[in-house]
Amino acid sequence: MRPLLDMVKLNLAVPRGEAGFWTVIKELDRVGRPWTANDVSRRTNVSRRLATRYLRKLRLAGFVEIVDQNKVGNGGGLPSENIFTLVKKPALAPRLAADGKELPESAKEQLWRAMKMIKMFGAADLVGACPDVPLSTARNYACALAAAGILAQNGHVFRLVRNLGNQAPKVLAAKLVFDPNAKVVVGHSVAREVSP
What we know:
The protein is of the alpha+beta class. The protein is about 35% helix and about 20% strand. It has six helices and ten strands. Helix 1 packs across helix 2 (about 35-45), helix 2 crosses helix 3 and helix 5 crosses helix 6 (about 135-145). The two termini are about 35 Å apart.
């Protein structure tokens, strides 16, 4: 009897989200010239509307400022496009609400920080270090990281074996169409982050 799962090569489109926007914004700013929402949109291959929404939050929070405006298109009566520059430049993308208020760390960010500090732990130890995180979230996240080889697991005890850096690893889920005849994934597959 053949195993249910076959190993296949997989090309997976992973959305970059606000962290991706932030990386592009910092790159554009490093060049030393102001930039627009269209510049961010083109480099991330995401709609201008989504880039504009993130830039609005950044502007409300004081991370970017409008330094000028361009007329869009050839006609004189077309709407203006804002030209931005960075004011504050943290390494990681700011987590912001629609009104520009900074959001607290996500559960996964809290857990990742605790894992790096504690080094060896159980799910209850993580909840002790991150009291706002439910036990099930801590357990599920630790198990996902163990399955990926980031943590080593011995029973209910985990140990950090691969510190990947400041940003918390994301657990993704994808919908795929698999052709068992050719052993290939057919069509485009897009991953989305699993909620805590």
